[in-house]
Design brief:
Shape: globular
Number of helices: 1
Strand content: over 45%
Oligomer: single chain
Radius of gyration: 21 Å
Order of helices and strands: EEEEEEEEEEH
Number of strands: 10
Distance between the termini: 30 Å
Strand order of the largest sheet: 1-2-3-4-5-6-7-8-9-10
Largest sheet: 10 strands, antiparallel
Structural class: mainly beta
């Protein structure tokens, strides 16, 4: 019971009509699969791992992710290689609910070491975010988050995201 296994296979073969605007775009058949496992060490602690591969016909891309999570935080390491470039990344996030789950402050930090193709230089990126989710009633959620990234392209980019969510299906009784 503490072990969960996942698997997924997707095959996409685009079919575009010759007399449409989409005919001018290049497209390939793509086959993709993911295999993963999660193991619960105890009630609030889990470790996980996932491997995936995408075949673009004449080239491939692979991804591995390993990490762990607990009740209020998680961390993961990802490694990608192949057609989509190379990437080694670490991310961690945490959030703790207050006032009977009405207010949840969150924090996220990430670091990536990547290159976009085999001829590109290696680049580093550092990112972070702080935010909060406010739920005055169970069907209404107000979210705010400040995100920051620093890399070669965005020297010091900061953004503010706001979102309001209302669960309509709860009151319509259709779901």
């Amino acid at each position: 019971e503490p072990l969960s296994l996942t698997g997924e296979y997707i095959h996409r073969e685009p079919r575009l009509l010759y007399n449409s605007i989409f005919w001018v775009f290049a497209y390939n058949t793509i086959s993709e699969y993911d295999l993963g496992a999660e193991y619960a060490l105890c009630k609030d602690w889990q470790v996980f791992g996932k491997f995936g591969s995408v075949s673009y016909g004449d080239d491939n891309s692979n991804q591995m992710t390993f990490g762990g999570s607990m009740k209020y935080a998680s961390a993961s390491f990802s490694w990608n290689t192949g057609y989509g470039g190379e990437l080694a990344a670490f991310s961690a996030n945490a959030g703790y609910p207050f006032f009977n789950n009405q207010l949840t402050p969150t924090i996220v930090i990430g670091y990536a070491h990547y290159k976009l193709n085999s001829n590109a230089p290696i680049t580093d990126a550092l990112s972070g975010a702080v935010g909060a989710v406010y739920r005055p009633i169970p069907v209404l959620s107000l979210d705010a988050q400040v995100q920051w990234i620093q890399n070669k392209i965005y020297n010091n980019d900061m953004r503010l995201f706001l979102r309001v969510s209302y669960y309509v299906g709860e009151h319509l009784n259709i779901f």
